[in-house]
From TrEMBL:
One term under GO cellular component: membrane
GO molecular function, one term: glycosyltransferase activity
UniProt EC number: 2.4.1.-
Protein name, entry field: Glycosyltransferase family 92 protein
Length: 248
Protein backbone atom coordinates (compact mmCIF):
# COMPACT_ATOMS: atom_id res chain seq x y z
CA UNK A 1 0.00 0.00 0.00
CA UNK A 2 1.05 3.58 -0.60
CA UNK A 3 -0.17 6.55 1.41
CA UNK A 4 -0.29 10.24 0.76
CA UNK A 5 -1.45 13.33 2.61
CA UNK A 6 -3.37 15.66 0.31
CA UNK A 7 -1.65 18.93 -0.61
CA UNK A 8 -4.84 20.58 -1.91
CA UNK A 9 -5.87 23.07 0.78
CA UNK A 10 -9.52 22.00 0.76
CA UNK A 11 -8.56 18.33 1.17
CA UNK A 12 -5.42 18.63 3.27
CA UNK A 13 -6.88 16.64 6.19
CA UNK A 14 -7.19 13.42 4.20
CA UNK A 15 -4.91 10.39 3.97
CA UNK A 16 -5.25 8.16 0.92
CA UNK A 17 -4.34 4.46 1.08
CA UNK A 18 -4.03 2.50 -2.18
CA UNK A 19 -3.88 -1.28 -2.30
CA UNK A 20 -5.69 -4.51 -3.13
CA UNK A 21 -8.66 -6.17 -1.46
CA UNK A 22 -10.70 -9.37 -1.59
CA UNK A 23 -14.40 -9.00 -2.25
CA UNK A 24 -15.47 -7.38 1.00
CA UNK A 25 -19.20 -6.68 1.10
CA UNK A 26 -19.08 -4.15 3.92
CA UNK A 27 -18.44 -0.62 2.62
CA UNK A 28 -17.47 0.67 6.06
CA UNK A 29 -13.94 0.25 7.38
CA UNK A 30 -11.69 1.49 10.17
CA UNK A 31 -8.77 3.84 9.57
CA UNK A 32 -6.17 3.03 12.22
CA UNK A 33 -3.72 5.85 12.79
CA UNK A 34 -0.45 5.24 14.65
CA UNK A 35 0.44 8.56 16.28
CA UNK A 36 3.88 9.93 16.98
CA UNK A 37 3.40 9.10 20.67
CA UNK A 38 2.85 5.44 19.59
CA UNK A 39 -0.84 5.44 20.54
CA UNK A 40 -3.52 4.29 18.09
CA UNK A 41 -6.47 6.37 16.91
CA UNK A 42 -9.40 4.67 15.16
CA UNK A 43 -11.74 6.49 12.75
CA UNK A 44 -14.63 4.77 10.92
CA UNK A 45 -14.99 5.69 7.25
CA UNK A 46 -17.02 4.60 4.23
CA UNK A 47 -15.10 6.53 1.59
CA UNK A 48 -13.50 4.03 -0.74
CA UNK A 49 -13.24 3.45 -4.47
CA UNK A 50 -12.65 0.10 -6.13
CA UNK A 51 -12.32 -1.38 -9.59
CA UNK A 52 -11.61 -4.82 -10.97
CA UNK A 53 -11.41 -6.73 -14.23
CA UNK A 54 -13.30 -9.96 -14.68
CA UNK A 55 -11.74 -13.02 -13.02
CA UNK A 56 -9.27 -10.95 -11.00
CA UNK A 57 -8.60 -12.57 -7.59
CA UNK A 58 -8.16 -9.11 -6.04
CA UNK A 59 -9.64 -5.73 -6.84
CA UNK A 60 -7.87 -2.41 -6.76
CA UNK A 61 -9.00 -0.32 -3.84
CA UNK A 62 -8.49 3.22 -2.62
CA UNK A 63 -9.39 4.11 0.96
CA UNK A 64 -9.88 7.70 2.05
CA UNK A 65 -9.27 8.45 5.73
CA UNK A 66 -10.27 11.82 7.14
CA UNK A 67 -7.77 13.17 9.64
CA UNK A 68 -9.39 14.68 12.74
CA UNK A 69 -8.68 18.33 13.44
CA UNK A 70 -6.23 19.20 16.14
CA UNK A 71 -2.54 19.12 16.83
CA UNK A 72 -1.84 15.45 16.11
CA UNK A 73 0.99 13.88 14.12
CA UNK A 74 0.23 10.65 12.28
CA UNK A 75 3.22 8.45 11.47
CA UNK A 76 1.54 5.31 10.11
CA UNK A 77 -1.86 4.10 8.94
CA UNK A 78 -3.59 0.73 8.68
CA UNK A 79 -6.97 -0.40 7.32
CA UNK A 80 -9.31 -2.81 9.14
CA UNK A 81 -12.41 -4.05 7.30
CA UNK A 82 -14.02 -5.70 10.32
CA UNK A 83 -15.87 -3.05 12.32
CA UNK A 84 -15.90 -5.33 15.37
CA UNK A 85 -12.11 -5.60 15.37
CA UNK A 86 -9.59 -3.31 17.02
CA UNK A 87 -6.54 -1.63 15.54
CA UNK A 88 -3.45 -3.87 15.48
CA UNK A 89 -0.61 -3.20 17.88
CA UNK A 90 2.09 -4.70 15.64
CA UNK A 91 3.66 -1.95 13.51
CA UNK A 92 4.19 -4.40 10.62
CA UNK A 93 0.46 -4.12 9.87
CA UNK A 94 0.86 -0.38 9.22
CA UNK A 95 2.33 1.62 6.35
CA UNK A 96 4.15 4.90 6.82
CA UNK A 97 2.38 8.08 5.78
CA UNK A 98 4.24 9.79 2.94
CA UNK A 99 3.83 13.50 2.31
CA UNK A 100 3.64 14.61 -1.34
CA UNK A 101 6.82 16.14 -2.68
CA UNK A 102 6.56 19.88 -3.24
CA UNK A 103 8.57 21.15 -6.18
CA UNK A 104 10.10 24.59 -6.64
CA UNK A 105 10.17 25.77 -10.21
CA UNK A 106 9.22 23.81 -13.34
CA UNK A 107 9.64 20.06 -13.24
CA UNK A 108 8.02 17.12 -15.01
CA UNK A 109 7.30 13.76 -13.37
CA UNK A 110 5.86 10.61 -14.98
CA UNK A 111 4.03 7.73 -13.34
CA UNK A 112 4.58 4.85 -15.75
CA UNK A 113 2.69 1.61 -16.22
CA UNK A 114 3.90 -1.46 -14.36
CA UNK A 115 7.10 -3.18 -15.52
CA UNK A 116 6.73 -6.93 -15.32
CA UNK A 117 8.23 -10.27 -16.31
CA UNK A 118 9.83 -10.15 -19.79
CA UNK A 119 10.09 -6.36 -20.15
CA UNK A 120 12.98 -5.71 -22.56
CA UNK A 121 15.91 -4.08 -20.72
CA UNK A 122 17.25 -2.36 -23.86
CA UNK A 123 13.87 -0.76 -24.57
CA UNK A 124 13.76 0.51 -20.99
CA UNK A 125 17.12 2.24 -21.51
CA UNK A 126 15.85 3.87 -24.71
CA UNK A 127 12.66 5.02 -23.05
CA UNK A 128 14.39 6.48 -19.97
CA UNK A 129 16.90 8.33 -22.12
CA UNK A 130 14.12 9.70 -24.33
CA UNK A 131 12.33 11.05 -21.25
CA UNK A 132 15.55 12.73 -20.08
CA UNK A 133 15.91 14.45 -23.46
CA UNK A 134 12.31 15.66 -23.19
CA UNK A 135 13.05 17.27 -19.82
CA UNK A 136 11.51 14.74 -17.43
CA UNK A 137 12.96 15.03 -13.92
CA UNK A 138 11.38 12.06 -12.14
CA UNK A 139 9.79 8.76 -13.19
CA UNK A 140 7.83 6.56 -10.79
CA UNK A 141 7.40 2.95 -11.88
CA UNK A 142 6.18 -0.31 -10.40
CA UNK A 143 7.56 -3.83 -10.82
CA UNK A 144 6.06 -7.30 -10.64
CA UNK A 145 8.10 -10.46 -11.32
CA UNK A 146 10.48 -8.40 -13.45
CA UNK A 147 13.48 -10.09 -15.08
CA UNK A 148 16.96 -9.45 -13.66
CA UNK A 149 18.31 -7.49 -16.67
CA UNK A 150 15.45 -5.00 -16.52
CA UNK A 151 15.83 -4.70 -12.75
CA UNK A 152 19.50 -3.73 -13.21
CA UNK A 153 18.38 -0.97 -15.59
CA UNK A 154 15.91 0.34 -13.02
CA UNK A 155 18.53 0.14 -10.28
CA UNK A 156 20.91 2.28 -12.34
CA UNK A 157 18.40 5.02 -13.12
CA UNK A 158 17.26 4.99 -9.51
CA UNK A 159 20.88 5.44 -8.39
CA UNK A 160 21.21 8.64 -10.47
CA UNK A 161 17.92 10.03 -9.14
CA UNK A 162 15.78 9.81 -12.27
CA UNK A 163 13.62 6.85 -11.25
CA UNK A 164 11.76 5.92 -8.09
CA UNK A 165 10.88 2.22 -8.12
CA UNK A 166 8.01 0.77 -6.12
CA UNK A 167 8.98 -2.90 -6.17
CA UNK A 168 6.38 -5.69 -6.52
CA UNK A 169 3.80 -4.41 -6.69
CA UNK A 170 7.63 15.79 -28.33
CA UNK A 171 6.64 16.92 -24.62
CA UNK A 172 4.60 20.18 -24.16
CA UNK A 173 6.40 23.32 -23.06
CA UNK A 174 5.96 23.48 -19.33
CA UNK A 175 5.96 27.23 -18.80
CA UNK A 176 3.49 27.77 -21.64
CA UNK A 177 1.00 25.06 -20.70
CA UNK A 178 0.83 25.64 -16.95
CA UNK A 179 -0.36 29.14 -16.21
CA UNK A 180 -1.54 30.26 -12.77
CA UNK A 181 -5.03 28.80 -13.27
CA UNK A 182 -4.30 25.42 -14.90
CA UNK A 183 -4.20 22.16 -12.93
CA UNK A 184 -3.42 19.89 -15.87
CA UNK A 185 -4.17 19.00 -19.45
CA UNK A 186 -4.96 15.97 -21.57
CA UNK A 187 -2.64 14.06 -23.90
CA UNK A 188 -4.16 12.02 -26.73
CA UNK A 189 -1.79 9.14 -27.49
CA UNK A 190 -1.39 7.28 -30.76
CA UNK A 191 -0.62 3.61 -31.25
CA UNK A 192 2.64 2.64 -32.95
CA UNK A 193 2.20 -0.81 -34.50
CA UNK A 194 5.40 -2.85 -34.58
CA UNK A 195 4.00 -5.34 -37.09
CA UNK A 196 3.80 -2.58 -39.70
CA UNK A 197 6.74 -1.89 -42.01
CA UNK A 198 9.30 0.19 -40.08
CA UNK A 199 9.25 3.88 -40.98
CA UNK A 200 13.00 4.20 -40.50
CA UNK A 201 14.71 0.87 -41.13
CA UNK A 202 18.20 2.28 -40.65
CA UNK A 203 17.56 3.48 -37.10
CA UNK A 204 19.25 1.53 -34.32
CA UNK A 205 16.66 2.77 -31.80
CA UNK A 206 13.38 0.97 -31.43
CA UNK A 207 11.43 4.14 -30.62
CA UNK A 208 12.54 5.93 -33.79
CA UNK A 209 12.15 2.92 -36.08
CA UNK A 210 8.35 2.63 -35.75
CA UNK A 211 7.16 6.21 -36.21
CA UNK A 212 4.04 5.39 -38.24
CA UNK A 213 1.01 5.46 -35.99
CA UNK A 214 -2.76 5.45 -35.79
CA UNK A 215 -4.78 8.58 -35.23
CA UNK A 216 -5.31 9.65 -31.63
CA UNK A 217 -7.15 6.94 -29.69
CA UNK A 218 -9.95 8.56 -27.64
CA UNK A 219 -10.17 5.89 -24.93
CA UNK A 220 -6.42 5.89 -24.16
CA UNK A 221 -5.97 9.51 -23.14
CA UNK A 222 -3.51 10.40 -20.38
CA UNK A 223 -3.01 13.50 -18.25
CA UNK A 224 -0.19 15.77 -17.15
CA UNK A 225 -0.99 17.65 -13.96
CA UNK A 226 0.57 19.60 -11.10
CA UNK A 227 0.12 17.58 -7.87
CA UNK A 228 -0.41 20.63 -5.65
CA UNK A 229 -3.34 21.71 -7.86
CA UNK A 230 -5.34 18.47 -7.90
CA UNK A 231 -7.35 16.63 -5.28
CA UNK A 232 -5.15 13.82 -3.99
CA UNK A 233 -7.03 10.56 -4.30
CA UNK A 234 -8.92 11.72 -7.39
CA UNK A 235 -6.19 10.79 -9.85
CA UNK A 236 -5.90 7.65 -11.91
CA UNK A 237 -4.40 6.86 -15.28
CA UNK A 238 -7.31 8.44 -17.18
CA UNK A 239 -8.65 11.29 -15.01
CA UNK A 240 -8.15 13.71 -12.13
CA UNK A 241 -10.13 16.35 -10.25
CA UNK A 242 -8.75 19.88 -10.12
CA UNK A 243 -8.74 21.83 -6.87
CA UNK A 244 -11.24 24.65 -6.60
CA UNK A 245 -10.07 27.65 -8.61
CA UNK A 246 -8.11 25.62 -11.20
CA UNK A 247 -9.07 24.36 -14.64
CA UNK A 248 -7.90 21.60 -16.94
Amino acid sequence: MYTNLSSCVKYQNVIIVNGWENNVKNNNFICCFRLKNENNLAIVSNQKLSSAWAHMPLRRIQYKCSVPEGNIWIDHVSIVNDLNATCPEDLSYFVKVSLPLMSKGSNIAICSLISYRSQDAALLVEWFEAQRLLGVNKIVTYTQDLNSDAIRVLDYYESIGLVHVIHEFDMPKRDHMFDDSTAGFQLNPKLHITTWTPYNRSSTLFISKYLNSTSSVPDRHKYVYMPERVVIGSTNIHEFTACEGYKM
